[in-house]
Amino acid sequence: MSNLQQVSVPRRVRIVGVLLASVALAACSRPTRNQIMHGGGDADRGKVAIQTYGCGACHSIPGIAGAHGQVGPPLDHWSKRVYIAGEVPNTEDFLIRWIEVPEATEPKTAMPMLGVTEGSARDIAAYLYSIR
Ligand code: HEC
Q: What is the CATH number of domain 33-129?
């Protein structure tokens, strides 16, 4: 005769709903840096221009196919960068100037002038600032 053990019913642990402090879901009304700085530039066109000018040969750039270059610094989290090439504040005007004529900002820079037009530089800047 087998020794049947009474299986004790496991105690059910009931998870009582956790009362969360109500989270303020109101959208931040402060304009983001991108909204302030992106007058004129079109990030979608900028994405295409980045490919056309071959920035990805030297930079790794999120969202750009094949952009894994290691010659220059990676451009990830660009919207959060404080300086451009450690020289000037990361504002739209300085960035556009950097993209058009890097040596105007840093005479000995290894980044070449690629003949980027002002319009394309503006679009590229818009794309770079969309990188969070
Ligand atoms: C031949 C390689 C090369 C190409 C092509 C190139 N760059 Fe650069 N880039 C560099 C180097 C090297 C630096 C670092 C410059 C310095 O600090 O003096 C740099 C720096 C930068 C910076 C500043 C990075 C930082 O961390 O401050 C940005 C932004 C940038 N490049 C954007 C671009 C864009 C946009 C293109 C395409 C239009 C491009 N680069 C094409 C080599 C290149």
A: 2.60.40.420
